[in-house]
């Protein structure tokens, strides 16, 4: 069972790495299934003689390959079925009328900007998927109330939809995979709020009723704790609404490694099960006729299962909660059926069940961390060490989990908390035995009597965690190591967890040291790399030389968030960049500077160069920049940087686009021209002033490909090999304009666009410029579907 579960898991994981889905012919699938059944049966039948040992292990190996193949085919079939429910391309960006039911707990968007919710479609045009994610925003030009929707309500909306689409950035979050796992096959927004019609206040249905109950509990907690700064933690523990926790608190939890304590998972489900099961056991033992009919252990296990299911429903049955519940179901079923076996077998069966129900679970960090942590606990509880007291065992387990998860955390987040053992030693008892019980007790009696103590303890806990998080040594961050090094690190961590006499511990320490000292490769002297990040309708470019880093613009704001938080900072973290030698802000447009404060908060910045010293730039908390003016030059590692525009003393233009900071970067093998949003006036001046000196190997096209830029004279002066358009998917401006795209293409440039090809990497070395698109170098079968 253990080997088969791991083999099946590997097959499912391998499918999720594929650029396209395999073709599934029915005869081929049947043949593979028959082969799997025969090989698996033969592999696990114990041979009658020891001389067949080699043959048996060979047969087992073949069987495991067949099991992996079965996992691969199973995941492919599930993916094909899910992707078939897709939004037709012809319906994107059109006004569509649809009727359906609010199917989940609505979430606030920003600070009173609107709400976001899952919508189960009942009536719509052909080609609209069954489940979509909708946003309903408050009208900006009206003093109107925040839109209100409740779970289980049936509505008729006019909406605009688009197919799943997210930023494709190295080290970034794969939003399209997240939507696929949750079976959300389109996203959109309510187009005509005034025409929105609530048809039915209660459409019926069990889960709709559950979500309505969750909404009522959330409202009751908010009413009982008005303006309480940490009420979001209690709401998250009660109904699984993680969006109730502020971004500042999430950052504290991330830096201290305690995020798992406030995200309902296996620990919380098990805790509730143990509490109710233990209470049932105490009561059951005192009633003889109950004991005679049902053994105490089975009664307690049943009560624990019922409590776990109830809590999971209350938490909304999200993907992480489903995994935790499946693990509990497997453990309790094993006990009730009298088939108790080694805990590792139960864990393997739970893993198999999770992957069967949710083949996309392998894309979730929580999947690997939760099963990995349980496996470490089982390894340490295997009787290898001498008995120790409770608190010593707890410390040993926490340290072991911290060590074992280092490779996974580096692979998933490029960081791990150095204060995690201390933070967890403080937070786990408080959350497990004080905050969570009080919060769950308040579900039956949602009053300040229980909620106030829970909130007070949460405040104490946050105070200590914030003190730990403020330390400069709280978080270890580095570049994301390659896959082979992650695997080696996992093996090394396993060796270090084995008994002290285990050979190879010195080698394991060396492997862990190599893992922690890994640095991403950088360009050689005289060469540089420019990455045009996929930030949507905006611009952000990372330029890297042999030892220096620069960011040109920080992308747009996304309502309550921005490109600095979502794209630029995670990307820099994946490269291990914690310091920018220079931040260049081309001009004061929100789509170019919207993420600036977030970048300043995420990394240290030595110097800021701004093309337009407008109020928003001067008001930055860490403002210490200088005006970007023509004539400024500098050199890093054999790579030259020349500011070509704006000219000193130029008169104010009608639009600040004309004041954009134009920067030409040149090395031994080529050059890249960054021009911000300059328009025709600035382009004519640049051609008149610099002429042939504008010629560059690559250009990030001005103003996202607008018709107001890219004049014929300017295109002829630059004559690049590569032209990159930084544009948003289905942007309302229609960028890039077809005539502009054609103009650069006819000039001989290979044109790229970030909305369809993701981030574009420009490598400028001795051989010239090489352009690589992220969606083409790292394709996945769900991209664009």
Keywords:
alpha/beta; OB fold (Dihydrolipoamide Acetyltransferase, E2P); Metallo-beta-lactamase, Chain A; 8-stranded mixed beta sheet; 7-stranded mixed beta sheet; 28 helices; 46% helix
Task: Summarize, please.
This is DNA internalization-related competence protein ComEC/Rec2. This protein has 785 residues and is an alpha/beta fold.
Question: Could you characterize the architecture of this molecule?
Answer:
It is a single chain. This protein has 785 residues and is an alpha/beta fold. Among the domains are: 2-84; 89-204, Beta Barrel (OB fold (Dihydrolipoamide Acetyltransferase, E2P)); 528-777, Metallo-beta-lactamase, Chain A, CATH 3.60.15.10. The chain has 28 helices and 28 strands. The longest helix is centred in the first third of the chain and has 32 residues, at 53-84. It is globular, with a radius of gyration of 29 Å.
**Average pLDDT metric:** 87
Bin the helical content.
Answer: 40-55%
Query: Looking at the chains present, what oligomeric state does this protein adopt?
Result: single chain
* CATH fold descriptor of the domain at 528-777: Metallo-beta-lactamase, Chain A
Number of helices: 28
Topology, number of strands: 28
* Overall 3D form: globular
- What structural class do the secondary elements suggest? alpha/beta
Return the CATH class of the domain at 528-777: Alpha Beta
Cα gyration radius (Å): 29 Å
Strand order of the largest sheet: 19-18-16-12-11-10-27-28
Q: Which runs of at least 5 residues are low in confidence (pLDDT < 50)?
A: 42-51
User: CA-to-CA gap between the ends?
Assistant: 35 Å
The largest sheet is: 8 strands, mixed
Tell me the strand percentage band: 15-25%
Look at the structure and name the CATH superfamily of the domain at 528-777: Ribonuclease Z/Hydroxyacylglutathione hydrolase-like
CATH architecture title of the domain at 528-777: 4-Layer Sandwich
Transmembrane segments: 27-45, 57-75, 261-284, 367-385, 397-416, 422-443, 481-502
Membrane topology: Multi-pass membrane protein
Pfam family, one: Lactamase_B
Subcellular location: Cell membrane
